[in-house]
């Protein structure tokens, strides 16, 4: 069992915390944050390959959680899948915005300054590849997307994912294998 899962089993379940948070309970929100902040940061880092962007995404995810506290409903006993979804959506939005800004800068920059843009593009090649995978995950059917977010990006074990999703571990392993194959097909089209 992972450390994050062990911490999630201490104290009231996430669903109970979420109900308290919906009533404006700051202590319950603090407990939920302390329970899942490390997992969300790790997930954000896997999405962005940047410590500072992971910190920003962590903050934005929990800010969204606080803002949506009365509206959002947890479908599972854990808030982690919902937090991962919020994190992935924020990462995609920020990635798109940065791509638009980079394209605008490249159009506005004089020819002799384009070398710097090429250097920046070369340094962010790993981020581009990771963004391709995140975009491919967004194209997956919902059950495969959930498995990809939990097991492949979220680094949850198949046993923990099975418990979280309420299905057999063998089903999770089969979904992971199908999802990996599907991702290979989707990303091979986008990579040269």
Automatic annotation (TrEMBL):
<keyword id="KW-0804">Transcription</keyword>
<protein>
    <submittedName>
        <fullName>Sigma-70 family RNA polymerase sigma factor</fullName>
    </submittedName>
</protein>
<dbReference type="InterPro" id="IPR039425">
    <property type="entry name" value="RNA_pol_sigma-70-like"/>
</dbReference>
<dbReference type="InterPro" id="IPR013324">
    <property type="entry name" value="RNA_pol_sigma_r3/r4-like"/>
</dbReference>
<dbReference type="InterPro" id="IPR013325">
    <property type="entry name" value="RNA_pol_sigma_r2"/>
</dbReference>
<dbReference type="Pfam" id="PF04542">
    <property type="entry name" value="Sigma70_r2"/>
</dbReference>
<dbReference type="GO" id="GO:0006352">
    <property type="term" value="P:DNA-templated transcription initiation"/>
</dbReference>
<dbReference type="Pfam" id="PF08281">
    <property type="entry name" value="Sigma70_r4_2"/>
</dbReference>
<feature type="domain" description="RNA polymerase sigma factor 70 region 4 type 2">
    <location>
        <begin position="133"/>
        <end position="183"/>
    </location>
</feature>
<keyword id="KW-0731">Sigma factor</keyword>
<dbReference type="InterPro" id="IPR036388">
    <property type="entry name" value="WH-like_DNA-bd_sf"/>
</dbReference>
<dbReference type="GO" id="GO:0016987">
    <property type="term" value="F:sigma factor activity"/>
</dbReference>
<feature type="domain" description="RNA polymerase sigma-70 region 2">
    <location>
        <begin position="32"/>
        <end position="100"/>
    </location>
</feature>
<dbReference type="GO" id="GO:0003677">
    <property type="term" value="F:DNA binding"/>
</dbReference>
<keyword id="KW-0805">Transcription regulation</keyword>
<comment type="similarity">
    <text>Belongs to the sigma-70 factor family. ECF subfamily.</text>
</comment>
<dbReference type="InterPro" id="IPR014284">
    <property type="entry name" value="RNA_pol_sigma-70_dom"/>
</dbReference>
<dbReference type="InterPro" id="IPR007627">
    <property type="entry name" value="RNA_pol_sigma70_r2"/>
</dbReference>
<dbReference type="InterPro" id="IPR013249">
    <property type="entry name" value="RNA_pol_sigma70_r4_t2"/>
</dbReference>
